[in-house]
Amino acid sequence: MSAVFEFFQKIQKQILDLQNSIHEFQESWGRFQKFWDLFFQIVPWEVLLLLVFSVILLSLFNSISPSTPKTNLTISILLLCGLWSYLWSLFSETPNYGKILWTGFYILFPLHAFGLGKFTYEKIRLRILAKKRIKPRDWEESLGQISKDYNGLMALAYSKTDSAHENKSEIQTKISDLEKSISGIKSLLQ
Fold it and tell me: Per residue in 103-142, pLDDT tens?
């Protein structure tokens, strides 16, 4: 009798384990679905599809010109967006070109944002440096800037001794920087 009782307890335990396993699977499936719902709310599925096809096209373009991957990706995305809009206009009476542009922008903006930020930073830095040359804060800063500009001019002039005419724009830029620094120290003295 106890053997039959133990047998039913084992069956009951296995059923409980199976129920727990099913419950855990349902919970993990629910978390999986929530993750992908959230992911596709942030990143539209069209972006992923465009990215997959652009990577295929990018591998072709990179085999032709491997030194310009950013340009190759931009060209492949623009070509695919053009193809997408053409096909959509063929098969639909009301194509949504805004969605196509937004999808392409979703990939191209992060691609070019760093370069644009770097370009903007460099322009701002050069403007601040030019302002410091013309209006230095104190005597030491002015002398340091003159020294830096003079040493930069001399280093460039000595490195380009045999090709000074070919590089005269670079040399003239360094000379104008030195002149601005000198005018800055003159303004401090007045």
Answer: 899 889 988 998 889 999 999 998 888 887 888 778 888 8
**Are 118 and 144 a contacting pair, CB within 8 Å?**
no
Structure tokens at 103: 């999808």
Can you give the C-alpha Rg of the chain in angstroms? 33
- pLDDT digits over 38-75, tens only? 988 888 888 888 989 998 998 888 888 888 888 899 99
Residue type, 35: F
Is pTM, for the whole model, over 0.90? no
Reported for 137-146, long-range contacts at CB under 8 A and 24+ positions apart, including other chains, are 138/188, 139/185, 139/188, 142/181, 142/184, 142/185, 142/188, 143/185, 145/181, 145/184, 146/178, 146/181, 146/182, 146/185
